[in-house]
Amino acid sequence: MISSVIPIVIGSVLCLWWALAVVTTGLAVRPGRLVDRWDAVSRVASLAFVMALCLVVVTWTLVPVALWYLLTVLTAAVVAAVVLRAVDLPTRGEDSAAPTRRASAIGNTALAIAVAAGLLLVLP
Amino acid sequence: MRTRTIVAACLAALLVIAVGVAVAPRVPTLSTAETGDPDLLDRARDLYSDGPRDLLGVVEIDGGTTSAAHFGGDGDTDYEIGSISKVMTALLLADAIERGEVTEETSLGELLDLGDAPAEDVVLVELASHRSGLPRLASRPQDVILTATAANLGRDPYRVDVPTLLDQARAARLTDRGEPRYSNLGFALLGQALAEAAGTDYATLLRERVLDPIGMDDTYLPVDGTELPADATLGHTDRGRTAAPWLAMAYAPAGGVRSTTADMERFARALLDGTAPGMAALEPRWADGEDRVGYAWVVTDVEGTEVTWHNGGTGGFVSMLALDREADRAVVVLSNTTTDVEGEAVRLLTGKDWA
Fold first, then answer.
1. What DSSP character marks residue A100?
2. Is the ipTM here above 0.90?
3. Which residues, at least 6 apart from B5, have a Cβ–Cβ distance to it below 8 Å?
């Protein structure tokens, strides 16, 4: 009994993190929130990362798999919204935080790609 | 322009959904392809229908009568039996003592090159009874990282050769020696030491001294992937994915054996009638909490019934072998998911709840 509590808690926290990432990205799609396309890329990459993390770490025999599908659909909707919004954004903002955002986007994207590639290589 | 953007957004969404569905966790349910004894099927279904299950095989021995129930597969379906391998290694120890190849007090250092490591003077009986003080798993940082990573990703955490196992043993520290401390590392070393004493490798030793005499022809130890048949049963991890098979490399004595319910029936029957080699291994001699242990075997009092048992678990399989030696009864349960089977097996054996 006790041994299954910890994975349930960990799984719940990770799914909550994924849900929060979806919500915050969804809110960022509103006008004036996303600054440039690098910002959009960064948020999508973050979503991909947390999605991969949930796939690997969550004990899905204890956490309902329906949650996976629900969050996947919500993620897809948010990604579509980001794509729709991104066309109206400048490639690169001109404010002082633009270089940081760009670095963050590159970092997040690299991390997401590394995780996805790693999973493809090592998952049985 | 707007249409192209909408199409791009739809494609992006579809891509996410396609990837999400393709890699989605799969949580199987107990197979409905049932064969075997109708009464045992009914009783086993009642006990095992909950939780993630897939293939499940049950054997019940009652004196001269044997019943089997299969939820998917049949008596020849192979399963990883995990730590039930340890009781086979335990039989090998008792048998080797009877042959005069080793004694209980033979030290690891007499059989394996461990230099002046703390494990060098650990004796075989300490390994067999989990009182050596060796850690459960190898404790070098690289081993801890590799084991944890492999376990989380559904891969075999024990893919090390014998020289690496010896390196792990040389680096191991002993903690609370003399006290019960379950150790896979210890049992791996025990099996390799017995093989060394017999002048062969572990797989050959087990084949010649336990499997062949009992007639367990479909039980095997796949040292590498090429020795796994194409139709080898795959397990399911608790993460909802297919588990990589655990191979029988240096840790085979602790958990590398694959077997079938038909072979495990032969094994259980040989244990009940005392024809298995190394039967002294079953005799409980040390206290471990409320249980008593022999060489690997655990003896538990279940509401007045003495149950001699060992369970097993790998990345995608669980198993249980439980004996009521006094009543000449045994139950074997093999499954290709990681959902526990032990308590239900004891209930089938004794009709009583196992705390």
1. H
2. no
3. A83, A84, A87
Is the sign of the CA dihedral A77, A81, A84, A89 positive or negative? negative
Q: Which residues, in sequence order, are bridge partners of residue B36?
A: B69
State how far the Cα of B150 lies from the Cα of B249, in Å rounded to an integer: 15
Q: Does A9 touch chain B (CB under 8 A)?
A: no
Using the structure block, give the residue that is written with the tokens 């150790």.
B183
Separation CA B225–CA B233 (nearest Å): 13
Query: How much is the mean pLDDT over chain B?
Result: 95
Torsion of CA A83, A87, A91, A92, to 10 degrees: -80
CA distance to partner chain B, nearest, from residue A73 (Å): 6
Give me B195's structure tokens: 């093989």
Task: In whole angstroms, give the CA distance from residue B255 to residue B346.
Answer: 21
Name the packing angle between helices B84-99 and B184-198 (round to 10°): 40
User: pLDDT digit string (tens) for B90-133?
Assistant: 999 999 999 999 999 999 999 999 999 999 999 999 999 999 99
Taking the CA atoms of residue A20, residue A24, residue A26 and residue A31 in that order, the dihedral angle to the nearest 10 degrees is: 170
Chain A nearest CA to B159, separation (Å): 14
**What is the per-residue pLDDT for A2?**
47
Q: What is the pTM of this model?
A: 0.88
* pLDDT band at residue B21 using 50, 70 and 90 as cut-offs: very high
The three-class DSSP label of residue B123 is strand
- Residue A4 at interface with chain B, using a CB cutoff of 8 Å: no
What is the DSSP pairing of strand B298-302 with strand B65-71? unpaired
Closest C-alpha to B88, from B277, B272, B346: B277
Taken in order A30, A33, A34, A35, the sign of the CA dihedral is: positive
Q: For residue A120, what pLDDT is reported?
A: 65
Q: At what angle do helices A37-57 and A2-28 cross, to 10 degrees?
A: 170
Q: Which of B16, B154, B238 sits opposite A72 (nearest CB)?
A: B16
Residues B50-92 have pLDDT tens digits of 889 999 999 999 999 999 999 999 999 999 999 999 999 999 9
Rg of chain A (C-alpha set): 16
First vs last Cα of chain A: how many Å apart? 28
